[in-house]
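Lab manual, section 2.4: Encoding a predicted structure.

Procedure: take the sequence of the chain (416 residues), apply the prediction step described in section 2.3, and record the output as structure tokens. A sample record is shown.
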Amino acid sequence: MATTFGGPANRADQALAWNMKLISQHELSGFGGVGEGMAMQKAKDGRRILWLAHESAPKNFTAIDVTDPKNPKQVVQTELPHARVRSNSLDVVGNIMAVAYQCQQVGMKPAGVDLFDISVPESPKLISHFDASGPHSRGVHCVWFVDGKYVHMSSGAADFEPTNPNDDQFYRIIDVQNPSKPVEVGRWWYPGTRKGDSVPPPTRLKGEFDTGFRIHNVNVYPERPNRAYIGYIDGGAVILDITDKSRPKQVSIWRYSPPFNGFCHTAMPLLSQELLICSDECTKDGGVDWPKLVRVVDISTETNPQPISTFPMPAYESFAKRGGRYGAHNLHENLPVETSWRSDKIVIGTFFNAGVRAYDVSNPYQPQEVAYYVPAAPRMAPSGAIQINDCYVDDRKLVYAVDRHIGGVYILEMTV
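Recorded output:
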């Protein structure tokens, strides 16, 4: 069921829980603002290392030993080269970690992807840097790296000039089979978003809700390796045929804004059910850009995606004015790696001040909320409330949820 109560939800200083139990919390040495990069490594000595990309400077990434989830221990924490770059996103395959770098302005560096050797977690070693800087590029926002061969990413490029500055990041595929020499093998951008395109630019959303026609997340799974599923922000959800990685082809675009106000963040397929779970991102405080939802889309005919339901949301009246952002954001993306829990029935996502929440989609026409955890506001939280930004579920079915600003990582046991 959805949360519909009033009073307690308005109290940001009180934790709320149903079918999720807090095991422990780690504040990351006082630098508890975490972005959208969470990955788990099984180190050669048997330890489980949770790698976290920070939301902003001064920290780059942090590693936490979560072998004993009741007693997490910091292993390493690294610095960014300057205050106007963020790492935000990372993924791990074996002992190689890919980390994204995005700058505050175009033309700055470092802007691209670093590959690290993390075989000794205490001492990450840089293998190579893939440069994505350029006169119209801020670098890389998000990476998807799950097979050890290719990094799929949201990126600018030196040779890409967008028709609108908000459209500066597009889909790029990087071959990292030789990690010391990463090389681009393919790219795709939304039609009309590059200067010189043969089609006109897409119609933009109005005013403050114009957040850009650029890629955010991309998902590619071994069960269907010839498809890329993309959240393209104001462009909606995109399905691409990547049979030939050098020439990705559009299969379909499902754009639902307007009438909604944009920012399709993640388009995660549940392939056994031929569904696409599409999450928005709330980007404004106080419910200004409500509604920011999670939608269930039928892709049994992938050239014609059709929405069939939305996840039941906690009551707007209880959370919109609780502090900070309220609405959908990241999903646990069923990463096809050894350390990730995978389910085509339970979807877990983050909702900023409404915490981390789990939904049963066994009946995709009537998704049901089955668990949630909303931490109390961390001390000195700038928004006055928790802002749960991302989540990861490991193969032990433990849920790791991170705060965007200061709270660090919350380790939870889910009982559904």
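Check your result against the sample. The longest helix spans residues 316-319.
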